[in-house]
Amino acid sequence: MAESPALRVAVDMALCVGHGRCYELAPEIFGEDESGYCVLLRESVPESLSGQARSGEANCPEGAIRVESVG
Ligand code: F3S
């Protein structure tokens, strides 16, 4: 059975300047485009990946990543 989502992730692409910390620290949630900008790989995050999501949020210098609990 699939894990139910615990968190919802959003990236404000108007703020992303391509620091790349998100996809270095949380590669199962964030990827990169050909210019090094963030690509959100999954909006719904299960509990097992919540540490990656929180790490990405905490380490983006631009504050482009927002993580909120679901439910
Ligand atoms: Fe962009 Fe922040 Fe990631 S600037 S590439 S969302 S660390």
What would you say this structure looks like, in words?
With 71 residues, the chain is an alpha+beta fold. It has a single domain, classed as Alpha-Beta Plaits (2-Layer Sandwich). It is built from two helices and five strands; from the N terminus they run βαβββαβ. Strands 4-1-5 form a three-stranded antiparallel β-sheet, with helices on one face. A hairpin with a 5-residue loop joins β2 (30-32) and β3 (38-40). The longest helix is centred in the last third of the chain and has 10 residues, at 50-59. It is globular and about 35 Å long. The chain starts with a strand and ends with a strand. Bound molecules: FE3-S4 cluster.
Task: Quickly list its features.
single chain; 71 residues; alpha+beta; Alpha-Beta Plaits; two-stranded antiparallel sheet; 2 helices; 21% helix; binds FE3-S4 cluster
Brief summary:
By secondary structure, the protein is an alpha+beta fold. Helices cover 21% and strands 30% of the residues.
The N- to C-terminal Cα distance equals 19 Å
How big a fraction of the residues is strand?
25-35%
Q: Taking all residues together, what is the mean pLDDT?
A: 96
SSE topology string: EHEEEHE
Helix count equals 2
- What are the low-pLDDT stretches, counting only 5+ consecutive residues below 50? none
Number of distinct beta strands = 5
Which ligands occur here?
Answer: FE3-S4 cluster
- CATH domain class: Alpha Beta
Tell me the overall shape: globular
Percentage of residues in helical conformation: 10-25%
For the largest sheet, list the strands in their spatial order: 4-1-5
* Rg calc: 11 Å
